[in-house]
């Protein structure tokens, strides 16, 4: 595995005694999209801030493309682009000057061709002479990404990239992020929008109360932890579940017209054949059935609830 970021034993305890991070270990593979999921206050932004050199850790080590981020933060930081949650730009500067200035902050000589292509890729070229204050919320987000990419970093951190934006703009951002990965950028995003991780991520990490609960490939996580549901459309509505069906995890829905059975797809015996036989014995007919997997949201909620 070609690791571009390695985090070992990173913790953060503030002077108040609040422990924001508890000995986090994490490796990020070069060229992947990694989604860090967690509720508000879970420690997502603290972890990113430590890696980016904004917050000092209480313990642990961080290697960014082989460079020690704690001992040599300047060199490590040149490999990183950060798109924060909040819009932190001079509203009276133009798009072009903002990107040019950001590039210079990292000691990079001006490269007109690169900056022009960057703005074109982000659909900002036509707005290059506009002041930031004249742009829509979505365009301001794009400027933040342009700033973060201005010095040609290998890793791009997106901290809640679509918080507060509408659904259509969110999908535009997803497409943009996927395009960046295709050009070789490693992307790490924090989010509490489950669909964001489900749409884009190669791997998913779940963090809560400062502890990294798990890190898994998205498909493997859903395969291993996901449940399935069998839904039966009944021929006749049921007022209540008979006692004879108490051995199965069943729920009546849509005023008794549908019967839902939740089961573990990885179990040796799912209970479906015996359930269908029992329904036949009880003379409960159905006209249709369908199965579906649980979503990443279901898995996330289960994990966080178990951590309470």
From TrEMBL:
Gene3D superfamilies for the chain: P-loop containing nucleotide triphosphate hydrolases (3.40.50.300)
Transit peptide among keywords: no
UniProtKB keywords: ATP-binding, Nucleotide-binding, Transport
All residue ranges annotated as the ABC transporter domain in the record: 5-234
One MF annotation (Gene Ontology) recorded for this entry: ATP binding
SMART domains: AAA (SM00382)
Source species, domain of life: Bacteria
TM region positions: none
Segment forming the signal sequence: none
PANTHER family named among the record's database cross-references: ABC TRANSPORTER ATP-BINDING PROTEIN
Protein name, entry field: ABC transporter ATP-binding protein
